[in-house]
């Protein structure tokens, strides 16, 4: 009888169960499977057929159960083969899932084994039949008992064995995603889940990159069961390794000129972007996953970030509930990284112990670069991060609104570096991402307008960089720029100047922006606010500098205008020169209105004309006419009338207030410089004669200027002569007469300086003109002395010298002529100036003033002062002269037989050298090598080809020789000020040495030798020299042994707190004497504090490592292996410090700063010992084992040596203060207020220092007890609990105080009884009670 599928189906529908069973019995296994296969391939009634077979195969019968198992075993590979239509395969699997729970245990076990073997053999690549496997495992887990080998096993145990076998086997990479999806429906224990996730994460490296995003998606869904932290860690670490691999391949390719790419960069970035989207989506749905993500980042303190994790964080920040948390974490991580790097770079001890910190700033910038691959979900976070860093860590206004200007190249502190990073992030994001450009520009401009109370230099620098890098792009947002211009008159002047300088390239390519600016500036010219008018002047001057008229000289300054690859500096000069000329003349006519405004506005105009003329030489005629017509107002019209100047017109009065109306000296200075420059250009033949020459001749040397030049200096100041000669003349700033006289004096001094410069430059070294210069200086000096002396007698001692009007270039020329010009023809005339010591001192003092101004502001007054390059060249020339003068004319020779007021010229030169070196390090750090090369005074060395360390070492040796000369001259001839300056110069130069170089070692050796052999008892010099020693030594090796030796010397010099103890005389360093020991103590304690900071930092690092190791490896205990090198170094450092402090606490220090500082450092030492003890308690919990022997020695040292001496020191400090207070009893009545104040200060000091120290000692002992219990080592055997406490009762002192009180009581009773005429006993009793 032939059995067909139709017959079986019909029997099933007719409910003929017995008949159905008979028919199925007739079918062999092969025929049954063939029937199912044929039906499935046809795709018709397959599900009905399988249902019919199940209906005729009861589970409670052996044949039925076997037949069902046969169907399962056949259908699973059939569905997996891929021959069936997806709908048919899905129907079959769905039907099998429904019937799975009815299968007997043995069948379920067989099916489970079938799946495991198929997976091992790589036969489950399509994954269609894997949907059934979770149902099989679930049913298997519910089975009570299964035959396993010779015994029985529960279904749950069998399921665990299957899963273990599956996870231990090799998976085909093609089925990893399907298996991960399958396991989502499998019930797993925590251990099984961890085992599974670790297995999948390991397979990441074997998969194709395109398969990673779907696998990550399935893993994130799987993490809903648990193991969230493990999943996130695995994902981040995988991409971190991929990034590192790519970077190494890129470096290798660059070095070998061969492109080696395992993974294409764009493919990797796109995959990372997709994975980030998956993770962010999962965090949106599962906030527990978000919490685990932050825990994961915070736990891995040692190396928490990478470009991928930063990008992931910035994407997560788009979720509102995590936004603040993300940016706070990033801000903390960035500052911590910068601080850690700074701490490590400043200590050789730490550099040797730890590898260099990975740079978070580089990672963030890498994230910005990576975001160009379609990471739109990251860009908004980058913008927020950049502005957050700039807002949080930008420059802050200091005292009186003063701001320390810091350029991006000189950023050093963590805050400055973080601010610079924010600017870099925004700039790179602006370049790469078009959609966010408008937002970045708008936010920058908004901050320039709104942050008027705080400095905005960092935002101006950012705007300047944006404009320079992409000016054409900014034209799309020109409306935002013009809107900002409307606020110019309300902004601080510095902001306006910076803003206009930043947008200057835009003015050359956008007529609309230029026209809008001119309109705003014209309005500002009539503003009621002074700053508004000054802003207008600044804007107009900037336009004049940069819109050059055709034919103007291409001066070196012109080339320094802000340019870019897209814009030529003189783009308007080519096609619209006529428009430029009329435009500039129109601006000049607007600026002439300023000549009737306040002195500040005029001053700005005069100072600006110098630069305008050098940038735009064709405007010389108009500028000179403007200046000379203004100057004419203050000259007498009659040529023969002397003095030629009308100084009274320069001063105005408003009520009782007197103020300067016209800064005549600056006007004259500007006129002179413009005239000299114009004449110099014409004499060089750079300007061709034209039709205007005849008109120009009239004002080159007008008659009134000739009168001024030839006027006798005495006649010049005659209007004020009576004021200056009157001994009773008032110069106080509190009265109008004094203010008026002071203004007169400053004007006269300025005019004299301008005439000195003019006469020297135009005199061509003729003796007559040189003598005129000297005469002018004498008049200047006389007025200066009067002004200084008179102002010094007033209540306000602000006798600051007015800023010199000499130009930086002239100061350089003058110093060169005075000190280094050996031309025979000039010898006679220059000897006139060289013979005046006051004039020489004045010249060097002006140079010092200019250098200081350059250091503080980055520019100087006068022509060429705004140009950084020219200022640098003049600085090199001045330094070369000062260096030559100091090295060739020793101060001892110069000062012999002279006792003049003020410093010697050599000393001023040395002070100038110190300021110059400081300025170059601060302002021109990248040009230090060029600077040192230009100072080749003696010609002893070949500056070509030598590196910075060799160049610096050459000059260090010169200054060392000078210092050795000072020290060998004897104590009577020792010049403390010069020695201090030399040490300061050595300190500045030593920072340029490479700490790994031989020159650096020689520098340390020489400094140590000086400290050991110098025995001059000069406190300031010893402090400077020891500070230099410490700053060098810390970059060479740890200074703890040095501190120990110094503490021994201090103890030896000051004696012991116990007067009966004789201290062994030791002298490691001769510079430490009885006189210098207290100041040395403070220096030593300061260095102790730095060492403690390093130790504290190291312990915190190790504690972080323990936490991260515990989270990675779980809470499993690991045996304590050999002592870690960091732990060993910490123990040795603390041990040496304890030995050093042991010396100091026995030293008879004077009560005051030394004792207070020592108390604080002792408290910190015990606090860090407590931290170390806690660290070992934590270590014992994770790694049980024997404590290191070094730790036991450290505890013994602290308990037996330091702690008892600390209590003795406390007693010494208190008894010393009491004694000092008791000896002054006779003076208490006279100085009662001072005594009360001193007592209050002493009580306050004691209440802080002594209890803190005792508390920290006891906290240390408390945790030692806890560590003893944990480690089973009795550490308290070394500690002796002292009865000495801050609140102790000293019996001797108490008895003395009681006797004194009783004596006073008896005396008062006798006095009262003699005065009282009569009384009762009750009051007497009352008095006795009192």
TrEMBL record:
CDD domains: FANCI
GO biological process annotation, one example: DNA repair
Name the UniProt record assigns to this protein: Fanconi anemia group I protein
Organism: Triplophysa tibetana
Domain annotation FANCI helical: ranges: 288-370, 555-787
Domain FANCI solenoid, residue spans: 66-283, 378-541, 805-1029, 1043-1295
One GO MF term attached to the UniProt entry: DNA polymerase binding
Low complexity composition-biased segments: 1309-1322
Region Disordered: start-end pairs: 1298-1330
Biological classification of the source: Eukaryota, Metazoa, Chordata, Craniata, Vertebrata
InterPro entries, alphabetized: FANCI, FANCI_HD1, FANCI_HD2, FANCI_S1, FANCI_S1-cap, FANCI_S2, FANCI_S3, FANCI_S4
Chain ranges of the FANCI solenoid 1 cap domain: 6-56
């Amino acid at each position: 009888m032939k059995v067909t599928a139709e017959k079986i189906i019909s029997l099933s529908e007719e409910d003929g169960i017995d008949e159905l069973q008979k028919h199925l019995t007739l079918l062999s296994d092969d025929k049954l499977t063939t029937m199912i296969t044929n039906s499935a391939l046809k795709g018709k009634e397959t599900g009905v057929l399988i249902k019919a077979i199940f209906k005729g195969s009861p589970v409670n019968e052996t044949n039925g159960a076997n037949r069902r198992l046969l169907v399962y075993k056949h259908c699973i590979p059939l569905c997996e083969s891929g021959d069936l239509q997806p709908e048919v395969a899905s129907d079959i699997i769905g039907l099998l899932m429904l019937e799975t729970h009815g299968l007997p245990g043995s069948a379920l076990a067989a099916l489970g084994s079938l799946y495991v073997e198929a997976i091992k053999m790589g036969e489950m690549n399509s994954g269609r039949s894997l949907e059934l496997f979770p149902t099989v495992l679930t049913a298997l887990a519910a089975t009570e008992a299964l035959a396993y080998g010779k015994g029985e096993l529960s279904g749950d145990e069998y399921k665990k064995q299957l899963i273990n076998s599956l996870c231990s086997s090799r998976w085909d990479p093609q089925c990893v995603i399907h298996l991960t999806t399958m396991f989502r429906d499998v019930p797993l224990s925590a251990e099984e889940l961890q085992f599974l996730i670790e297995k999948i994460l390991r397979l990441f490296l074997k998969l194709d990159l395109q398969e990673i995003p779907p696998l990550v998606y399935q893993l994130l869904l799987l993490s809903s069961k648990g193991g969230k932290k493990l999943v996130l860690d695995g994902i981040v670490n995988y991409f971190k390794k991929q990034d590192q691999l790519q970077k190494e391949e890129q470096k290798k390719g660059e070095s070998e000129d061969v492109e080696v790419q395992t993974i294409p960069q764009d493919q990797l970035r796109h995959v990372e972007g997709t994975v980030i989207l998956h993770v962010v989506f999962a965090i949106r749905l599962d906030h527990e996953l978000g919490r685990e993500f932050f825990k994961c980042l915070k736990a891995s303190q040692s190396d928490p970030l990478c470009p991928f994790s930063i990008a992931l964080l910035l994407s997560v920040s788009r979720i509102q509930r995590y936004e603040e948390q993300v940016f706070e974490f990033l801000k903390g991580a960035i500052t911590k990284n910068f601080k850690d790097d700074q701490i490590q770079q400043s200590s050789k001890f730490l550099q040797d112990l730890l590898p260099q910190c990975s740079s978070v700033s580089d990672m963030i910038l890498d994230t910005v670069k990576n975001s160009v691959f379609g990471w739109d979900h990251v860009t908004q976070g980058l913008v927020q991060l950049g502005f957050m860093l700039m807002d949080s860590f930008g420059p802050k206004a200091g005292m009186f609104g003063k701001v320390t200007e810091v350029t991006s190249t000189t950023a050093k502190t963590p805050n400055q570096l973080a601010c610079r990073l924010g600017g870099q992030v925004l700039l790179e994001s602006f370049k790469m991402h078009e959609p966010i450009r408008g937002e970045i520009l708008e936010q920058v401009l908004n901050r320039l307008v709104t942050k008027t109370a705080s400095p905005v230099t960092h935002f101006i620098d950012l705007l300047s960089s944006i404009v320079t890098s992409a000016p054409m792009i900014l034209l799309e947002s020109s409306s935002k720029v013009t809107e900002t211009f409307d606020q110019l008159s309300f902004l601080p002047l510095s902001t306006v100047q910076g803003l206009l300088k930043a947008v200057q390239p835009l003015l050359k390519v956008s007529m609309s922006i230029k026209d809008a600016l001119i309109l705003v500036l014209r309005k500002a010219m009539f503003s009621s606010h002074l700053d508004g008018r000054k802003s207008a002047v600044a804007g107009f001057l900037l336009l004049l500098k940069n819109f050059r008229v055709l034919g103007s000289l291409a001066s070196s300054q012109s080339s320094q205008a802000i340019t870019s690859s897209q814009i030529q500096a003189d783009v308007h000069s080519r096609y619209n020169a006529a428009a430029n000329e009329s435009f500039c003349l129109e601006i000049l006519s607007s600026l002439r209105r300023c000549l009737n405004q306040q002195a500040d506005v005029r001053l700005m105009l005069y100072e600006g004309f110098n630069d305008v003329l050098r940038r735009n030489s064709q405007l010389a005629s108009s500028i000179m006419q403007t200046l000379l017509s203004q100057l004419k107002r203050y000259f007498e019209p009659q040529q023969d009338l002397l003095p030629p100047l009308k100084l009274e017109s320069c001063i105005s009065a408003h009520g009782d207030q007197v103020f300067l109306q016209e800064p005549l000296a600056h006007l004259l200075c500007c006129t002179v410089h413009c005239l000299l420059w114009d004449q110099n250009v014409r004499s060089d033949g750079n300007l061709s004669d034209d039709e205007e020459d005849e008109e120009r001749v009239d004002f080159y040397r007008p008659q009134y200027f000739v009168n001024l030049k030839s006027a006798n200096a005495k006649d010049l100041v005659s209007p004020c002569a009576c004021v200056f000669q009157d001994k009773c003349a008032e110069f106080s700033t509190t009265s109008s007469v004094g203010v008026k006289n002071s203004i007169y004096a400053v004007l006269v001094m300025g005019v004299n300086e301008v005439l000195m410069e003019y006469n020297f430059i135009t005199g061509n070294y003729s003796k007559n003109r040189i003598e005129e210069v000297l005469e002018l200086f004498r008049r200047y000096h006389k007025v200066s002395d009067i002004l200084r002396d008179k102002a010094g007698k007033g209540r306000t001692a602000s006798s600051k010298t007015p800023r010199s009007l000499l130009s930086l270039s002239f100061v350089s020329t003058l110093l060169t002529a005075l000190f280094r010009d050996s031309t025979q023809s000039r010898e006679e005339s220059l000897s006139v100036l060289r013979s005046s010591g006051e004039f020489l001192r004045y010249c060097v003092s002006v140079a010092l003033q200019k250098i200081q101004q350059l250091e503080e502001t980055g520019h100087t007054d006068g022509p060429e002062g705004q140009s950084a390059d020219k200022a640098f060249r003049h600085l090199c020339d001045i330094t070369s002269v000062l260096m030559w003068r100091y090295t060739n004319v020793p101060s001892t020779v110069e000062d012999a037989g002279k006792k003049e007021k003020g410093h010697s010229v050599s000393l001023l030169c040395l002070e100038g050298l110190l300021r110059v070196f400081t300025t170059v390090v601060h302002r021109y750090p990248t040009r230090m090598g060029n600077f040192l090369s230009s100072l080749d005074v003696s010609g002893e060395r070949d500056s070509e080809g030598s590196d910075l360390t060799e160049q610096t070492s050459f000059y260090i040796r010169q200054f060392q020789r000078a210092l050795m000369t000072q020290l060998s001259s004897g104590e009577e001839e020792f010049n403390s000020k010069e020695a201090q300056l030399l040490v300061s110069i050595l300190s500045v130069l030593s920072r340029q040495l490479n700490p790994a170089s031989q020159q650096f070692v020689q520098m340390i050796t020489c400094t140590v030798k000086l400290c050991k052999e110098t025995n001059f008892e000069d406190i300031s010099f010893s402090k400077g020299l020891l500070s230099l020693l410490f700053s060098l030594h810390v970059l060479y090796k740890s200074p703890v042994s040095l501190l120990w030796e110094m503490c021994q010397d201090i103890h030896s010099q000051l004696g012991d707190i116990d007067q009966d103890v004789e201290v062994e005389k030791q002298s490691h360093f001769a510079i430490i004497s009885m006189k210098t020991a207290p100041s040395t103590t403070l220096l030593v304690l300061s260095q102790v504090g730095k060492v403690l900071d390093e130790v504290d930092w190291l312990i915190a690092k190790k504690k972080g490592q323990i936490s991260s190791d515990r989270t990675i490896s779980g809470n499993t205990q690991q045996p304590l292996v050999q002592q870690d090198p960091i732990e060993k170094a910490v123990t040795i450092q603390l041990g040496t410090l304890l030995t050093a402090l042991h010396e100091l606490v026995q030293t008879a220090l004077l009560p005051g700063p030394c004792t207070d500082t020592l108390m604080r450092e002792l408290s910190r030492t015990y606090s860090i010992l407590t931290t170390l003890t806690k660290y070992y308690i934590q270590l014992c919990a994770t790694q049980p084992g024997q404590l290191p022997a070094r730790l036991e020695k450290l505890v013994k040292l602290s308990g037996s040596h330091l702690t008892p001496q600390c209590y003795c020191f406390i007693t010494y400090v208190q008894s010393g203060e009491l004694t000092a207070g008791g000896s002054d009893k006779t003076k208490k009545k006279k100085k009662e207020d001072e005594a009360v104040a001193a007592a209050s200060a002493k009580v306050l000091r004691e209440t802080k220092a002594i209890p803190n120290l005792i508390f920290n000692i006891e906290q240390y002992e408390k945790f030692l007890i806890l560590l003893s219990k944990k480690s089973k080592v009795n550490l308290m055997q070394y500690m002796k609990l002292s009865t000495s406490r801050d609140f102790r009762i000293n019996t001797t002192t108490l008895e003395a105080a009681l006797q004194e009180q009783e004596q006073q009581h008896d005396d008062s009773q006798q006095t009262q009884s003699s005065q009282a005429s009569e009384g009762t006993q009750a009051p007497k009793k009352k008095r006795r009670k009192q």
